[in-house]
Fold:
Amino acid sequence: MTTPTLFTPMRLGTLDIPNRVLMAPLTRNRAEAGTDAPVEMTARYYAQRASAGLILSEASQITPEGKGYARTPGIHSSEQIAGWRRVTDRVHAAGGRIYIQLWHVGRISHRSLQPDGQPPVAPSAIAAEARVFDGTGFVATSEPRALTLDEIARVADDYRAAARNAQVAGFDGVELHAANGYLIDQFLRDGANRRSDRYGGPVRNRVRFLTEVLEAITEVWEPGRVGIRFSPFSTANGIADSDPMETFSHAVAAASGFGLGYLHMVEGQLRESRDTGPGNDLAALRAGFAGAYVGNNRYDRALAVEAVESGRAEAVAFGRPFIANPDLPLRLLLDAPLTPPDDTTFYGGGAEGYVDYPFLETGATG
Structure:
């Protein structure tokens, strides 16, 4: 029997990967309290999942201001760089490859999570209809303030610095988080961006911040080691746009112009549905990108195999199945049963529901 293409090697940008089953970014809220640095258990967690074609790390804030949830890791301090270096060393020792996802949450935050209790920042002073984890529970986001022009330039510099830190930490590349209602997505969407300067108004202006951030990152990393994630038809975290096809046609074209290694797309409503909504055409957006396409959102084995065989995607990123199945590529290859995840242990906590899920072949947790 011929092995499905999903389980065969490929070149993703300029990185050779052994299969097309990618581990999607998964927020787990287990960084060290106080420093937001990955801990030893984090290194074990990622090393267990090193058989993924490529691990995309949990989203990691590029600056203290970019934080929106308690105990999410950063990539802006020496402690965080050292913590991530332990992770990348363990993943590489296990034969894996790992990119870090660079993150600024923008308005999806709470004053209690911000430096000196300041309001979160955003393109415009428009509150999000969303909730964030403050360490004890989920609370409504705080009303943000609009970034000044000087601050926008500074945030682009923060992305540049974080990209450099990712190199020091030993990552194989970076993914820019431009999805799910966070800062870059906020600049792109006219529901969150009401600016009247060169960063607001027509879509060519709303794409400007994205372009400047990509310029900063690709000054540090070769473009073939940079990916980008969009969620054009999702309303996650209260984000909205009057014409997502127009907005994301421009955004995808802008990203493609940098020669990035891949486009990682949330297809439909994040974690809810693969329905893109009337008038929306995912294939048309994908056609505007010159590099590899990575599909994401509610994929199972059959759908992933079909997507890659048909050429609709070069690879597929799996999220929650990787939480409970550290050897997911093998299980999918064998069409073996998947362990269901315990959603009560997704956010925060310790080893339970994090590094104690068994492997198929041994029954051990690795």
